[in-house]
Design goal:
Number of helices: 14
Largest sheet: none
Oligomer: single chain
Number of strands: 0
Length: about 375
């Protein structure tokens, strides 16, 4: 079977993908036997990867079907289809239509060709949805990045639900794609400053850590900060005193001073509290949420780039990828729906929650009354 030249094909581009031949074969079958339009299942022009092919398919639906006997003896219907398609695809020619008919191996296989076109369209649309999620999760200009990212994740999940009803499940449904290395977490100064502020403020107000189980060490961008958070939460869990010295002692037991970190550096890192732990914790958790969403999107994109994956493998693998976002999303929603608390207000460093101590002159003042 020889390849039909595409009116929009550029010799400088890579060779066509397999779906290109499926589209040509499907169109050839329909041009030869227009009555097969009723047998190919749900399909529209947007499913085609090639614009000219989509325009030609739309024209077939727009032009009334010909009489079978007349169609075998005259090209009148082909000419009407060509005239209807040319406004959208000026490069189409009568020669290309006849070539499509010639390269179609088996017109009766039109339903199979249509399934191939639908499958490749699903792959492209899934990739587009995942790219939207990746772009949203990394857009620092959004006024509410976490909420917007979760909305996009929901949109992706709904798209997967729609796809699952269009393709039949089959055994061996997990993708075998070699996944790329997980994207590096944001370790810019803003992110690290927020983590430092959290650690220092949590050291100054350790009691508030009992209500911050929604934050975990895996949420930190810097491993050292994650380990120090574990030091703090362990001290609080054991009911031991928490201050820079006790944290330093716990850090020593966890080998945190073995990689060039000096006691002076560690003490300085956790000795400048500002604000409240909850506020800084929410910032750290939001960055972790956005990073996880971006990693999920990257994973799904990798699945769509692997042509060995069937539609059902794409659906199953993408659902599992989205599930990795669920636990972190639940923790984020928990903390952002908590009722307002006085503990979340900004405090001046060094001021005790109990207020200033009583004045020394108070007894004398009472004695004179």
């Amino acid at each position: 079977m020889r390849h039909a030249p595409d009116p929009y094909e550029d010799d400088d581009l890579p060779p066509p993908q397999p779906v290109h031949y499926a589209e040509q074969s499907l169109l050839g079958a329909l041009l030869l036997d227009p009555h097969r339009l009723a047998d190919i299942g749900p399909l529209d022009a947007a499913h085609f990867s090639n614009h000219a092919h989509g325009a030609l398919f739309a024209a077939m639906h727009a032009v009334p079907a010909p009489d079978p006997e007349a169609h075998r003896t005259t090209p009148a219907w082909l000419n009407r289809v060509l005239d209807a398609a040319r406004p959208q695809a000026p490069g189409l020619t009568a020669t290309y239509l006849h070539t499509l008919i010639q390269v179609c191996p088996w017109p009766k296989h039109a339903p199979a060709y249509a399934r191939m076109v639908r499958a490749d369209h699903a792959r492209r649309m899934l990739r587009l949805q995942a790219e939207h999620l990746a772009q949203t999760s990394s857009d620092a200009t959004l006024p509410n990045p976490a909420a917007t990212t979760l909305i996009q994740a929901d949109t992706l999940g709904q798209f997967l639900e729609t796809l699952s009803g269009q393709f039949t499940p089959h055994p061996g449904s997990l993708p075998r794609t070699q996944l790329p290395q997980a994207p590096a977490r944001d370790s810019g100064e803003d992110a690290l400053d927020e983590e430092r502020a959290l650690l220092a403020t949590a050291t100054a107000h350790p009691a508030q850590l009992k209500d911050m189980r929604w934050l975990q060490s895996e949420d930190f961008a810097l491993p050292l900060h994650a380990a120090l958070w574990q030091c703090l939460t362990s001290l609080v869990h054991r009911g031991e005193p928490v201050d820079p010295v006790t944290v330093l002692w716990e850090a020593q037991h966890r080998h945190l001073l073995a990689d060039g970190l000096t006691p002076t550096d560690l003490m300085a890192l956790i000795s400048t509290p500002v604000g409240s732990p909850e506020c800084w914790g929410e910032k750290v958790l939001q960055r972790a949420l956005l990073a996880r969403a971006h990693a999920v999107a990257t994973r799904i994109i990798a699945y769509t780039e692997d042509p060995a994956n069937t539609p059902h493998q794409l659906i199953t693998g993408s659902r599992r990828a989205l599930a990795d976002l669920t636990a972190l999303r639940t923790r984020w929603q928990h903390t952002t729906t908590l009722p307002p608390r006085a503990a979340r207000t900004t405090r001046t460093p060094g001021v005790s929650r109990a207020g200033p101590p009583p004045r020394a002159t108070a007894p004398a003042a009472r004695a004179t009354r």
